[in-house]
Amino acid sequence: MKQVLVVSATMGEGHNATGRALAEAVHRLWPSAEIRWLDALDVRGPGVGPLFRQIYVTNVRRTPWLYEFFYAALWRSRWFAAACKRFTGAWCGRRLARVVGEPDLVLSTYPLGTAGLEWLRRRGLLRAPVGAWISDFAPHPFWVYGRIDRNLVMHPVAIAPAVRCVPDAPVAVSAPPVRGEFRPGDRNAARRRLGLPPDAFVALVSCGSLGFGQVSSAARELLAADPSVVPVVVCGRNERLARSLRRLADPRLRVLGWTDEMAAWTIAADVVVTNAGGATGLEALACGRPVLMHRPIAAHGRANARLMAEAGLAVVCEADGELAAAVRRMLDTPELWKSMAESAARHLESAGDLGSALRALAAV
Predict the structure, then answer these.
(1) Which of 6, 24, 26, 28 is nearest to 15 (CA)?
(2) What stretch or stretches form a coiled coil here (predicted)?
């Protein structure tokens, strides 16, 4: 029986969503495989996970300039990035050494966990093949490591920045690490099931499980763009956001809390509106849906937006009114929407499936 270790972290839901997709693909390939999970934050000691999560939330919501400064410093200074990675790797690696065991395959979805795994590999404490799935569309120096077996990026345009992070790192392109239900599907059938109007222009707004960023302004712009637009806003666990949106009392606006139907809502949509470009962007890509990046969040959100636009998979809307204008262009020029959807479909065809990436990693 194959023993597979997934190293993730509860930082929102994106990293765990990637881990669940990989676990699903493992069971398709090796039905008898035993999968074990480790949270790279929780293994560091009591209170570390909650502290890191609070730091992240505070940076994104209240001090984005500080988050942007740290992110830029990783790129500006190789010494700074290397020092941060060494410190993090030693801290996490020593803790992982106590619990990692002897798996046959290790799959990492969280960069600080990958740092610890590389620390173990350098010291001969981990022999199993290690693959890191870089679920951000744009890699950054904390994501990429030279002493693991695969750094899996999400699109060919991400190879160059990954290699720039660590020139000798083994980098390959993976299919989007999303659950199998995220795939091109019947838009009309999905709309009938979800009670959406068949002829509307449906914009799915999803900004992660915490509902980060300027979600309310996105909803307002979409409502103002055209009477045919039906915004569906997924607020995740952000109940305050859901309450404020419901106060708009617009009959076209659909407000959802936490939902297990994200695949159906994505398939039903004409376009996905988000601001980080992580798991939501990958789910849109896997369903062949174009993305509008509305006021991307600091650091990795802006980097993801730029690279997705370069790949022809997204339009970036930074200023007031740009989201509404982008939707009107899509309504007036359907070729724009079609070309973005075709770019997504071409990538899905060329990337294969998660199984091929897992087989290649296991064969190392």
Answers:
(1) 6
(2) none
